[in-house]
Every structure is written in structure tokens, then in C-alpha cells.
Amino acid sequence: MRANVLLILLTALSASAQIVDFSFASREQEARFRDLAEQLRCLVCQNQSLADSNAELAQDLRVELYEQVIDGKSDEHILGFMTARYGEFILYKPRLSVNTVLLWCIPFILLLAGIFSLVRFSRLRSEAELAKPSEQQLSRIRELLDGEIQEK
């Protein structure tokens, strides 16, 4: 148990140590760098941000990001540069565009389909319950069937 906790702490420290290696002129630049590094996806790891990844490509991208932040480029310019160079995939929150409209719409379509299915299933179930014969009707059916069997 202690070994697992120690391993988790060391992993967290090594991930955050990647950003500490850079020196910034102000806390604002460092905050912008951290925010942008969290918004960008590591192209190798795919489920980690640039801030969290230990991949060599992520380190190279952090250097590129650092240089652009130090040069005073705006957040929009930096995100636009990274998107133009690596595609929309680099963004954790892709922009709404012609290429990503399906990506943004699929969750809503699935939600509506789920709601429609639930409503339809509940209606069919209630209709089936209404269509169930009563005990009197069942006994009458049994009598008629017994009469048919005896006739044959």
C-alpha cells in the first residue's frame, strides 16, 4: 500500500517537474503556459495533456509553447499555430467547425435516441400490460379451449 502511494506521488512530481524546468519573467506567463499546456493534447499519449505527458514529443511541444509564450504571442495565436501544424486533434476541446460538427453533435443525438427509446419502450410495456387478459377472460379462454379439445 505504501509503495503504491509512493509511486503515485513520484509520478505526479515527475509530471509537474517537466514544467518547472522553464523560467518565466512573470507569474502571468507561467500561468498562461500552464493553462495552454493543459488545453493541448499529447500526440503520442493521446489521453494526456502536454503538461502531464513524459513523451519526447510532448517535451518538444512544451519547448515550442514556452518560446511562443515568452515571445508574447496571444493564446489564440498559439492555439491556432498548434492546430494548423498538428490538426484539431491536438486540442482537448476541439472548436466547432465543419470538420468537427459531427463530433459535437453525436452526444446530443445519442442522448435524444436514448430518451426516444426509453419513452417508446415504456409505452410498449404499458400497452402490453393493458392488453393482458383479466382472470375472467383467461378462465373463459380455458373453457373454450377445453371444449375444443373434447370435441376433437
Keywords:
70% helix; mainly alpha; 152 residues
Q: Which structural class best describes the helix and strand composition?
A: mainly alpha
Our estimate of the beta-strand percent is under 5%
Average pLDDT, to the nearest integer? Answer: 82
Give the biggest sheet.
none
SSE pattern, N- to C-terminal:
HHHHHH
Quaternary assembly: single chain
Number of strands: 0
Radius of gyration: 31 Å
User: What distance lies between the first and last C-alpha atoms, to the nearest angstrom?
Assistant: 77 Å
User: Which descriptor suits the 3D outline?
Assistant: rod-shaped
- State the helicity in percent bands: 55-70%
- Which residue ranges are poorly predicted, with pLDDT under 50 across at least 5 consecutive positions? 13-18
Number of helices: 6
Protein architecture, described:
The chain has 152 residues and is mainly alpha-helical. It starts with a helix and ends with a helix. It contains six helices and no strands.
Concise description?
The chain has 152 residues and is mainly alpha-helical. Helices cover 70% and strands 0% of the residues.
List the helices and strands and how they pair.
Elements: H1 2-20, H2 27-39, H3 56-70, H4 75-86, H5 101-130, H6 135-151
